[in-house]
Predict the 3D structure of the following.
Amino acid sequence: MGSAFEAFLTIQCIMTIAALGHYLPLSMKQLDVGIAGYMAIGAYASAILTRDFGLAFPLAIAAGTIAAAAAALVVDILAARVRLSGFTYAIFALSFAESLRIILNNSDRVGGTLGFVGIRHHTTLTGVAVVLAIVILGFWALDRSRLGHLRTAIRDDAFIVPQLGVPLLATKLVIFAIGGGLGGMAGGLYAHYVLFIRPDDFGFLLLVAIMLPIVFGGLDRFYGAILGTWILGIIPELFRGLGEYRLLLTAAATILLLVLRPGGLITDGTIERAKGLFRSRDAHRRDATDTGRP
């Protein structure tokens, strides 16, 4: 496997983990857009722990994940206390991420604007692929768990679910914390792959790079986020010979899809139609078997 292709696959796997973390609050129609900040926390925390304290890589990643989850929890608790929602909540979360970036830019302890160097190489394609597979299995289990059902109920009607005894705030905070933790995990894996990080790596452009594929793939199912991340990651690589125009091609493909399918590639309607198609095919096979027709 070529080094460039391996690098592409590794980064795509990391971005998929980050996208799934960002997908969680969005799947409840909650605009928590602090994912870049959570990635920065995971990246810097794990890098400091491995470089300066000699902590084992898995423990450093776990610590960065927990730190990012705790940050997401604090941000969302503060937002809940002042009853922020919708656009105002998005601005609040974005302000957190941007404030963190500014603090890191002015902190000599982590290299400031010059960046954090000396990070040890630990992230491999095999390791990231295994982590991504575990995360996907976790999402599959979440969709079938009580927490997953509560998340769906909040997405469908956040105003009526408290009347049904659903712990609205607690459910939101757990989902936010898991999403932030996944962002921190992705940040730690990224830092130990590129070996050099700057605060500006975790700015608004990273948020757009994570959010756009999720909207492209669709918010109704977690595999929409996975599909969108990989499609929008592959398109620029397929047309690399076009130079900067390949980015215009990606933007055009995104705009065209959103015009034709505002809900993204995968929606609840898409899933139901696919299930209906498979059911009709199975019924046709059974009828053919019962009547002896070929």
